[in-house]
Amino acid sequence: MKTVTTTLPEEAAAFIKCGGIVAFGTETVYGLAANVFDEVAIAKIFEAKQRPADNPLIAHIYDLVQLNDLVTNVTESAQKFIDNFFPGPLTIVLKKQDRIPMNATAGLDTIGVRMPNLDSTRRFLRLCEVPVVAPSANISGRPSPTTWQAVLEDLDGRIDCILKGDPTQIGLESTVVDCTGKVPVVLRSGSVSIDDLRSVIPETIAVSGDTSDVPSSPGMKHKHYSPVARVIIVSDAADAISGHRNAYIGIDDVPDGFSIKMICRDVAEYAREIFEFLRECDRKGIRTVYCQSVSDAGIGTALMDRLRRASED
Ligand code: TXA
Ligand code: MG
User: Of 8, 94, 115, 182, which shows the fewest CB atoms inside 10 Å?
Assistant: First the structure.
């Protein structure tokens, strides 16, 4: 298959309308879209990404009018989060409409929905005329793409089209919160922090890996965000070992002697750069990447979650 790259949202949306799959930018990471009602197109996403079939997809909308096509009812907690955080990097999980094919949600009776807050993204979504499901546009297990070039690196020849846009602003995937039960449960951390959610609904809890009585996010158990290089988390930058084929990223500076190093101004910049940095390490044949830890607050929680997963074998 030839992958068309374009800057024209009309051209990209035309592929969605005839059952194709299209990569597009959002404020978080690049996604890979298919018509939410088209089972065959959705199957192409799983195939292109080599994504495990038990990992559900997030539906993307440009306007709240599309919500009723996706979910059976909007719970009180969901409504509050919508009022406060839509459009934005927050995905809410609700009971799905029967019309949505089961492969979109990996057999679950719920669906995650989010409304990206980038104008260019919503223009594309509007032109698609249907909601689209879209996972991150990477080969499963690799760092999520934050540039269209990173999408091309993973998926050239495997997808119909890439809608070229700017590098993404946030750089980490959306926060996922289950709103089907009595209390909202955060399934994946993102730039909307648990404190942000608690400022609206104080009872909101975070899922913890070892509880079995709360809903879980199937995707979180899979290997994720992993470069070929080994990732080692250090709290003190001085513990990073320099050398040929070693790399460092963090807030504090380190002496020269690393093949690549990146010093970030703040945690937001670190979050924005981490996935592209890990990809660059692979391009340069780096063996070990030292990543400085950050404090567990705000987007730091999400960044630490991704670093921990990247460091697991
Ligand atoms: O920022 C984002 O969310 C990006 C952009 C493209 O919007 N998308 C993204 O999708 O990160 P993906 O497929 O890489 O991650 C989806 C996550 C997975 O952890 C999945 O398990 C969880 O959301 N998820 C999706 N639907 C769910 C559901 N019905 N119940 C529980 N978890 C769900
Ligand atoms: Mg992903």
Answer: 182
